[in-house]
Amino acid sequence: MFNAFTKPSKKTDSDSDYVESDDSDYGEGTSTSTSDFSSDISPVKNFPVGSWTCAHSSKNPKPNMNQAITAKLEEMVKNYESTNDKWRAFGYQKAIQALRSYPKQISTWEEARNLRGVGAKLADKIWEIAESGELRKLNEFKSSDDIKILNMFTDVWGAGPTTARAWYQQGFRTLEDLRTKAKLTSQQKVGVRLYDDLLERMPRSEAGEIETVVREAAESIQSGIIAQACGSYRRGKATCGDVDVLLTHPDGKSHRGVFTKLIEKLTNEGFLTDHLVSIEDSGNQKKYLGVCILKGENRKHRRLDIIVVPYDEYGCALVYFTGSAHFNRSLRHMAKKMNMSLNEHALKYGVVRKGNEKIHEGTIIPTPTEKSVFEHFKIPYRPPEERDH
């Protein structure tokens, strides 16, 4: 039997939108006239959906005319996240979104300053990159041994920026220091031991093999079960950081009891090597986060999540765990503007909010299929490969 551990501070791979993100407006959509206190019990009529990311295919994206600038700003986000400077990281993220949607190359400082959410100091940095192709502050980060170590520590599975800084302040400088001197959680011990394997992206073919192993094991336990790899694999990416396999059963009841049996079976077969987290949430979804390895020579350990859901939640769960993170944020924020809410469990209407606080959870809208989620938003269904925003 495997042990259930406390949920770690972060999920290291962002292929699926596992952790609920905030509903911040990333510069998309059109503001509605809803007030801070809304009691409308039906979706907003004639809502302008055309300007939202989730309404468009990622296969024909608008070209990023400022790619050289956004690439360096993304590096800055990573560095600020590693130093736990969340405010600056968020500011840079908003600037990146504004630059990506800007229809031409930035040619003056004033253009940069006029971007939504960009202040004078950030405009200075954008203009510095536009003029010289370099950013002095980023070069300082790159040359800083402190930042390199913090970035390395932050990449340990189960460790976030706060933990990374604490390790640094305790005098640790290498992974060997962590192995031999640090007081690590069970998840962090796995993260350190398998650091290189878990950090490396796997080829798509390997992710498909992992999906097959999980599906065949689940089918041997319960016939008729559905097992679908989600995340970047379902979106058609050539490489994957981890594999998320979503399981359910069409009869609405035979998924029960599969979760524990499946984990035990895969463990006994040697496929699951390390157990990280086991969660049963209030919506009767069960989630397992662990590490697996395929049989054969020169195989590497890979991160695997297994999620078992009731069939009446499968449509929303399939959207949620497929991602991308930006696509999901767009859907959730649009739902909020329409007095609705969307998560991995359900789509609801008539949600009442006062500011950011929900004071009425709303009423569940049946979503028997993934396509039905799109239909309720009155946006075109986007197959997974068109959601890689």
Secondary-structure element series? EHHHHHHHHHHEHEHEEHEEEHHEEEEEH
The CATH topology label of the largest domain is Beta Polymerase, domain 2
User: What structural class results from the helix and strand content?
Assistant: alpha+beta
Distance, first to last CA: 39 Å
| Strands side by side in the biggest sheet | 3-5-8-7-6
DSSP strand content: 5-15%
Helix content: 40-55%
What is the name of the CATH architecture of the largest domain?
Answer: 2-Layer Sandwich
Task: Calculate Rg over CA atoms.
Answer: 22 Å
CATH class of the largest domain: Alpha Beta
| Tally of domains | 4
Q: What are the low-pLDDT stretches, counting only 5+ consecutive residues below 50?
A: 1-42
CATH superfamily of the largest domain: Beta Polymerase, domain 2
Shape descriptor = globular
Mean pLDDT: 87
